[in-house]
Amino acid sequence: MDAALYTTLNRQSGLMREMGVVANNIANASTTGFRREGVVFSEYVAALDEDPSLSMAHASGRHVDLTQSTIAQTGGSFDLAIQGDGFFLIETPEGERLTRAGSFTPSAEGELVTPDGYRLLDAGGAPVFVPPDAKGVAVAQDGTLSANGQPIAQVGLWQPTDPLALRHQSGTLFDGGEIEPVEGAIILQGMLEDSNVEPVSEIARMIEVQRAYELGQKFLDAEDERVRGVIQALGR
């Protein structure tokens, strides 16, 4: 196959991946705690047998934007927002996961859980338990959870030991690999952090990607017509 076709097809594949990421960003523009993503393109050099090596753009990974988003007041006793770095630690069937979405509710057993039923973990990695008869629930900025005027737990904030190890799993959940406690960040009770997606910027990027893809498709169509013409001419 011609080198131009190799590079164009590889480019088209990367653009399709980026289109999917941008579409997912737009779909989650109103999702609490969502973090926008971008596709990371790198150079891929393929060694050919007799011809010169071929350099192509390769969509090799995703970049997670950890920019702080706006914080909205909800008044909910178990709505928590993080100001600064870090994530809440959640227990899921697939293992521990990180999230910035701080909407929690007490389960029937008294444990704080996400809307999906995943348990919130404290600074020691144990589930956060709130007694059924608890009154005057308060969460201090350092994560100390108090009820009836007495401290009962401390919500932990965590971050990956290696920032590049952060991987988006699904929705607002991330796999951080090896994690460590965060210092300096604060927890705000009765508030939730919005998505950090800027819809206008994402829509503009989607248009750019779509136009780039259409240009590549036009080239492929023209090349296909050229090859057909050559074949027909040689077959006469």
Description of the molecule:
By secondary structure, this protein is of the alpha+beta class. It folds into two domains: 3-66 and 206-234, no CATH class; 71-193, no CATH class. The protein is 26% helix and 32% strand. It is built from two helices and 18 strands. The protein has helices spanning 3-27, 199-234; strands spanning 37-46, 54-64, 71-73, 80-83, 88-92, 95-99, 105-106, 112-113, 119-120, 138-139, 144-147, 150-154, 158-160, 167-170, 173-175, 179-181, 186-189, 191-193. The strands form seven sheets. A five-stranded antiparallel β-sheet has the order 9-5-6-15-14, with no helix packed on it. Strands 10-11-12 form a three-stranded antiparallel β-sheet, with no helix packed on it. A two-stranded antiparallel ribbon has the order 1-2. The longest helix is centred in the last third of the chain and has 36 residues, at 199-234.
Mean pLDDT across the residues is 86
Question: What structural class should be given to the helix and strand makeup?
Answer: alpha+beta
Detail the poorly predicted runs. Answer: none
Identify the overall geometry. elongated
Strand order of the largest sheet: 9-5-6-15-14
| Terminus-to-terminus distance | 23 Å
Order of helices and strands: HEEEEEEEEEEEEEEEEEEH
- Which percent bin holds the helix content? 25-40%
User: Biggest β-sheet: count, sense, barrel?
Assistant: 5 strands, antiparallel
Could you say how many structural domains there are in total? Answer: 2
- Count of helix runs: 2
Radius of gyration over C-alpha positions, nearest whole angstrom: 24 Å
Strand content: 25-35%
Q: Total number of β-strand segments?
A: 18
